[in-house]
Recover the amino acids of this structure.
C-alpha cells in the first residue's frame, strides 16, 4: 500500500491516482468475476501492450489492490485476483456499469 | 452524445471510454460543486497543460457530460458546468470519494 504522505489530500484524487486510468478500470472489471491469467487479460483487453499490462498489474499489486499468485506447476501458472481492498472497489465499477447502461439507453 | 454504434458492448467500458482518465475524473469532481472557468480549472489541476484541458473539456462537451456557456461580457466569460447527464455521474465520484477516504484511513 502507499504511504499516507504520498497520497493527495483529496480522497477522490487518492482513488483517481490509483485507478483513474482506462486499463486499470477494465482490469478491475474483469477481476471482479474471478482470477485471470496474464495472457487471458492481454487477449481480452484489445489494444493493450504487454508493457502497459505488466506495469498496470505491478502498480496495482504495489497499491494493494490485486494479488499475484504463482502456482507451482510446469510451466508455473500465475493468476491475478482482487485483494480484499480491491474488492472494495466493486461499488465504483458498479456505478460505472449503471451509468454506462443509462448512456446506452439514451444514445441513438 | 455518442451514437449507439460507437459505444463498446460492455456498459463499464462505455463509461470508461468517456471518463476513464485522471483529468476528466478530477474535472467532474470540481464541477460537482459549481460551474468553473477555464483558468480556474487550469490553476486547480496541477500539471495539466492548456491543450489537455481544452481537449478534455471539448470531448466531455461532445459526449454530453458538460455544458459550455459564454456570458456576453467584456471580455466574454466562459463557464463549464455539469449537464444533467454529467450530474448523473455523481454516484461514481461519490464511491471514489468513499474508497479514497477508506484507503487513507488504512495507509500508514
Amino acid at each position: 500500500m502507499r504511504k499516507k504522505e504520498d497520497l493527495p489530500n483529496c480522497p477522490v484524487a487518492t482513488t483517481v491516482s490509483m485507478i483513474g486510468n482506462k486499463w486499470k478500470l477494465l482490469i478491475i472489471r474483469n477481476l471482479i468475476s474471478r482470477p485471470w491469467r496474464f495472457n487471458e487479460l492481454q487477449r481480452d483487453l484489445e489494444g493493450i501492450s504487454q508493457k502497459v499490462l505488466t506495469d498496470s498489474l505491478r502498480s496495482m499489486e504495489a497499491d494493494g489492490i490485486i494479488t499475484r499468485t504463482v502456482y507451482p506447476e510446469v510451466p508455473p501458472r500465475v493468476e491475478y485476483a482482487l485483494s480484499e481492498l480491491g474488492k472494495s472497489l466493486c461499488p465504483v465499477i458498479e456505478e460505472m456499469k449503471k451509468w454506462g447502461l443509462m448512456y446506452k439507453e439514451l444514445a441513438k
